[in-house]
Amino acid sequence: MSEINQQPSTKNNQPSTNWFASWFDTKYYHILYKDRDYKEAQTFMDNLTHYLNLPEEAKILDLACGKGRHSVYLNSLGYDVTGADLSENSIKEASKFENEKLHFKVHDMRDVCDSKYDAIFNLFTSFGYFENDADNLTTLKAIKHSLTEYGFACIDFMNVDYVIDNLVPEEVKTVENIDFHIKRYVKDNHIFKEIDFEDNGEKFHFTEKVQALRLTDFEKMMEEADIYLLDIFGNYKLQPFYKNQSERLIMIFK
Ligand SMILES: C[S@@+](CC[C@H](N)C(=O)[O-])C[C@H]1O[C@@H](n2cnc3c(N)ncnc32)[C@H](O)[C@@H]1O
């Protein structure tokens, strides 16, 4: 049996590439999550654009867009959309949908964009990955700087308290004949997901590690980034946020 494939390691056994740069760029990430709920994503985009009252010609940035499921739908509503993600493979896939008002680019969310947007969306827990806390703040500041004067941003994060209360410690998910053995646990204020599987006789191991950021953490960072938090919702229907019951922590800011 071959060695286990995972994030590349340095001599000190420290990952030389961040987990988010490698795992999200593999085909296995997309296989494991292939049953993502498009309908729910679309309902969320309908509700969010309606709530923000975005004009028809609005320019939207889908920051950490993955393969562009939200971008494509937002463009179908008539908006001028740019999807940006660190994963080259995801952007390559998403680019197949490009048109005059839909573009994709490889971009690190910590960097300020070269254009300004009327709305910037960071969706489906695409935050809290960095080893260094300062990078969270850098990302928030980059979002703020990439907004137009009257622009709004939205971060759609997990509700950590709900996730911890409902954590499934172990499960096996079979997708496209691959058995993904998944372990979940909380350690050092992060939520970990260890993913083990075998494909064509090769063993793979990946780790997802997301910072357990609560509303109070975001409030502190936003204050530091001189960001104004306007509204908070607890699910994709944009119903109120309740710390112990809501599935999502959806923050609207400018
Ligand atoms: C949980 S996925 C969500 C993808 C997409 N928003 C969706 O809902 O399908 C997180 C995404 O964040 C991207 N990502 C991770 N770190 C990033 C960074 N520093 N800059 C830009 N994108 C990043 C990953 O490549 C991945 O596509």
From TrEMBL:
One of the GO BP terms on file: methylation
First-level EC class: transferase
Superkingdom field: Bacteria
Gene3D superfamilies: S-adenosyl-L-methionine-dependent methyltransferases (2.20.25.110), Vaccinia Virus protein VP39 (3.40.50.150)
Keywords: Methyltransferase, Transferase
Single GO term (MF): 3-demethylubiquinol 3-O-methyltransferase activity
Domain Tellurite resistance methyltransferase TehB-like residue range list: 50-122
PANTHER family reported for this sequence: TRANS-ACONITATE 2-METHYLTRANSFERASE, TRANS-ACONITATE 2-METHYLTRANSFERASE-RELATED
Annotated protein name in UniProt: Class I SAM-dependent methyltransferase
